[in-house]
């Protein structure tokens, strides 16, 4: 989700990877990782930092699984 929001920002503002890297103050390969969904290359903290630079609002939510969902996961 975090990467998708950054990609959306880049696309909406019609930024090239180089211009996006300059805007965010990061090396261009990091933008490439984001554009290609390489989640193993970038931490969530790093992505949150980039999202903060866009000036948008960041909201996070987490929903606990139901008892049935939890039981299914525990029995797997």
Give a quick set of tags describing it.
about 80 residues, mainly alpha, 5 helices
Quick overview:
This protein is mostly helical and 76 residues long.
Structural account:
With 76 residues, the chain is mainly alpha-helical. 61% of the residues lie in helices and 0% in strands. The protein contains 5 helices and no strands. It has helices at 2-12, 17-24, 28-35, 44-53, 67-75. 9% of the residues are buried.
The end-to-end distance, rounded to whole angstroms, is 26 Å
Q: How is the biggest beta sheet arranged? A: none
* Dominant shape: elongated
Order of helices and strands: HHHHH
Find the count of extended strands (DSSP E, 2+ residues).
Answer: 0
Helix content: 55-70%
Mean pLDDT: 91
SSE-based structural type: mainly alpha
Q: How much strand content do the residues show?
A: under 5%
Tally of separate helices: 5
Based on CA atoms alone, the radius of gyration comes out at 16 Å
Regions with little confidence, pLDDT below 50 for 5+ residues? none
């Amino acid at each position: 989700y975090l990467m998708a929001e950054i990609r959306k920002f880049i696309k909406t503002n019609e930024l090239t990877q180089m211009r996006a890297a300059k805007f965010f103050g990061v090396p261009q390969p990091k933008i490439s990782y984001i554009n290609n969904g390489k989640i193993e290359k970038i931490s969530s903290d790093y992505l949150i930092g980039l999202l903060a630079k866009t000036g948008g609002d960041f909201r996070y939510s987490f929903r606990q699984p139901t008892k049935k969902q939890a039981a299914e996961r525990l029995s797997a």
